[in-house]
Write a structure and sequence with these properties.
By secondary structure, the chain is α+β, with helices and mostly antiparallel strands. It folds into two domains: about 5-70; about 105-145. It contains three helices and four strands; from the N terminus they run ββαββαα. β1 and β2 form a beta hairpin. The chain is rod-shaped. About 10% of the residues are buried.
Length: about 150
């Protein structure tokens, strides 16, 4: 006989975490709605996790999800949204299971931050040396004048 469990997942800072588990659907959705109302999390999901011990297989189904906004049939889909959807479909991402990989930062962003840091340090070094040069020249000029 298959066993079912309802997991309440919370999203905060791009990281999904299991908040709690319940044996029945109503309790889990009620808790999810309460958590969503508190506005502490970016999104809330309830996932029905069914495991069949005889076959050793499990199945997960999203039964409640606040991360997906209902689509308005009158509003046309933007080009950016279409491109993002196509990229997600091409990558074969599975939206029924939350992502637990927090290291998905693009390498470009890290490189950009490092480059900015190097440029700031060079600017500070050049500015400091320039200031020392000006102070030295001013001292030389003051010594010759008196």
């Amino acid at each position: 006989m298959a066993q079912s469990l309802y997991e309440v997942h919370t999203l905060k800072g791009g990281q999904w975490e299991i908040d709690s588990t319940y044996p029945d659907r109503e309790s889990s959705i009620e808790v999810a709605k309460q958590l969503h109302g508190e506005k502490r999390f970016d999104a809330i999901k309830v996932i029905k996790d069914t495991f069949d011990p005889q076959s050793g297989k499990g199945k997960e189904i999203v039964v409640y999800d606040t991360s997906r906004t209902p689509r308005d049939k009158k509003a046309p889909q933007t080009a950016a949204a279409k491109a993002a959807e196509a990229a997600a479909a091409k990558a074969g991402s599975d939206t029924s299971r939350p992502s637990h990989d927090s290291r998905s930062k693009p390498a470009n962003k890290d490189l950009s931050v490092a480059l900015k840091a190097v440029l700031w340090l060079a600017l500070i070094l050049v500015g400091g040396l320039g200031l020392l040069f000006l102070v030295t020249k001013a001292g030389d000029m003051m010594g010759k004048g008196f």
